[in-house]
Amino acid sequence: MPYASETLLRASFFDITALATQPDDILANARYLEDGLLTLREGKVVTLESWEIAEGRVDVTQVIDLRGKLIVPGFIDTHIHYPQTEMIGAFGEQLLEWLNQYTFPVESQYHCPNHAEQMSAFFLQQLLANGTTSALVFGTVHPQSVDALFSAAEKLDMRLIAGKVMMDRNAPDYLTETPEESYQQTKALIERWHHRGRLSYALTPRFAPTSSPELLEKVRQLREAFPDTWLHTHLSENQQEIAWVKALFPEHDGYLDVYHQHQLTGKRSVFAHCLHLEDREWQCLHDTDSSIAFCPTSNLFLGSGLFNIKRCWQQGVRMGVGTDVGAGTTFSMLQTLGEAYKVGQLQQYKLSACEAFYHATLGGAHALDLDDKIGNFNAGKEADFVVLDPAVSPLQKLRSVNSKDIWERLFVMMTLGDDRNIYQTWVSGRPVWQQGTHQPVEGCCQPSKLPG
Ligand code: GUN
Ligand code: ZN
């Protein structure tokens, strides 16, 4: 479909215009326009200005009037597993038992391209229904899982980073591969998808316990051959997991050192969780300019621990927020920020709404090394954004009229809000999701059931 020459939207707007090195920078760079005009052309932002300034020169009949709504940059989910959508909320286990009992059997279903295709469509609809326009996504070990996801994301022109899981030990036979198979399949996927439109590839060794040194050597070789790919894995999530890594890799100086010695740290390396880091590991993440995905609902649900937001700022480590579905319990970034606040409270850290929205937008973009492309409304940025309905339920409305300013309204949105507050989601300058519309989802050949 050709682009209309310009798209003009009138609403309230909130974004953070520049990167922060400490929390105080965020408020200093926050932009709130009670009545603003956003101009888009060819899927990119041209300007964001106050309505008062723009009014004289625009043709009012061409303006999409969204007054009463708040438009913010699209949310960026820096860690999520699409093949765990159908097992979200699995009872009773912590990480290692949870993987064996629930995760591996469900992921086995993605050998079926039909299943992968249907779940990809469902997954992307969940992202959009929650205002998430970009994500860093785990597939399964099956290349067809990633083909299906990228194909579906390409149709929506979403900026998505994903990869096939690489694992060759300590998992069921039906999900393991040889290092050579892993290398060849990953290489073929990179050649097929990396930098195709808005899609990018992430090398995705599941975590150290399911990786032999030979497999990690293959990952290293791929990173050397394709240095602008991403690296996406888990790190220091659970105490049993950490002890296991130390037993499996006794010659290494702790968990992160396993990745570091294989040259898998660095810019565009994103480590999910990082709950129990040692001092030298924090330092290594800083020195290598690596990133962390903070996943509050997952960390609470699996009883893994509390992420130290304050320490992350002090160490100068890039950080974004991840839902980590299906250990995480929601696709909603609003709910995830609400849980992040509670994680902060348990450690006497006051996570303001302004800071929380930063982590979910520009900060997440920085964690993914995409801050030159997405994360705010600066001129030239890709036009991915969410139109929020600030108050949708009687309780939200009551609380909203009892809020004194935008900061309180934003805070209430991340405390009481969820997918009901997502009025529209726009990707590449086009509306791709609208509240109240339901995508039909058909049944599938596989045991997982989809709603009819
Ligand atoms: N560590 C290794 N695999 C996983 C996974 O699928 N989810 C979480 N939360 N942690 C992991
Ligand atoms: Zn995860």
From TrEMBL:
It holds the Pfam family Amidohydro_1. Residues 71-432 form the Amidohydrolase-related domain. Binds 1 zinc ion per subunit. Its EC number is 3.5.4.3. GO terms for cellular component: cytosol. GO terms for molecular function: guanine deaminase activity; zinc ion binding. The keyword Transmembrane does not apply. Keywords: Hydrolase, Metal-binding, Zinc. Pathway: Purine metabolism; guanine degradation; xanthine from guanine: step 1/1. GO terms for biological process: guanine catabolic process. Its cofactor is Zn(2+). It catalyses: guanine + H2O + H(+) = xanthine + NH4(+). It comes from the Bacteria. CDD domains: GDEase. Catalyzes the hydrolytic deamination of guanine, producing xanthine and ammonia. PANTHER family: GUANINE DEAMINASE. Belongs to the metallo-dependent hydrolases superfamily. ATZ/TRZ family. This is Guanine deaminase.
